[in-house]
Amino acid sequence: MVAHTSPDCLPYFEGTDSPCLNTGTVCDPSTVWCDFAELVEVKLTEFDSIVARTATSTPIAWVETLVPALWTVGDPDIAVPFDTVRMDTDSMVNLDATPSGFVINTPGLYQIFGWVIGLTDMSGGTIEVSATITLTPTSLAYGTPSVNQLNTDFELITQDVLATPNIHMVLPLQAGQSLFMTIGGGGSAGSTVLFGQVSLGAAWMGDLP
Asked: Is 44 helix (H, G, I), strand (E, B) or coil?
């Protein structure tokens, strides 16, 4: 009898099948193998189109700033004004129009990454340093989180320590979605963080499911 591969559902004969199947009551071997070959060719064509589209330039955007920014507990979070384009292979970055992030042009699964390096200065108690990546507009397709923010934070009780919150996540993104970066936190009044480096990026990994 005919079995099928998973997940592509390609037809094939099982090892227990007789090699002489032209009896009129079971599938003709030539038909099964022809179906198999045709479906494999469809898959290979799909792979070829992906390779042709990405072999010379995979969509990647990476922006950064090394300009120090002082944040004080109680102040609003800072929308990071990026000033350096580390990489942009798909015309996603326009810092004049979108200084705090960039816009996706090619839909697909993306590795999202962002990190912050900041030096703490506590007046006493604790300080919480956070980094947030916001997706606009929010997309709920393909299992995207039901909120539009990815964030990480941790609480510190040590003076003059380098705080390095970072975010790494694979997400399905559509063309036209924007990614923005904000930094801030919470803690004891008067405590500060001097953010010295902030990076945000997205690297295309494959087509949407």
From this structure: helix
- Ranges for all domains in the chain classified under CATH 2.60.120.40: 60-206
* CATH classification (class only), 60-206: mainly beta
* Cα(10)–Cα(32) distance, integer angstroms: 9
Q: CA angle, 206 as apex, 12 and 62 as ends, to 5°?
A: 165
Find the mean pLDDT for residues 49-72: 81
Give me the mean pLDDT over the 42-70 stretch: 79
pTM score, two decimals? 0.67
Q: What is the dihedral of CA 128, 100, 111, 149, to 10 degrees?
A: 50
Which residues sit opposite 22 in a β-bridge?
A: none
Does a cis peptide bond (omega within 30 degrees of 0) precede residue 7? yes
Asked whether the predicted pLDDT for residue 17 surpasses 80, the reply is: no
Give the closest residue to 198 by CA, choosing from 131, 134, 115, 129. Answer: 115
Euclidean distance between CA atoms 8 and 38, whole angstroms: 13
Centre a 10 Å sphere on the Cβ of residue 47 and count the other Cβ atoms it contains. 9
pLDDT band of residue 29 (cuts 50, 70, 90) is: low
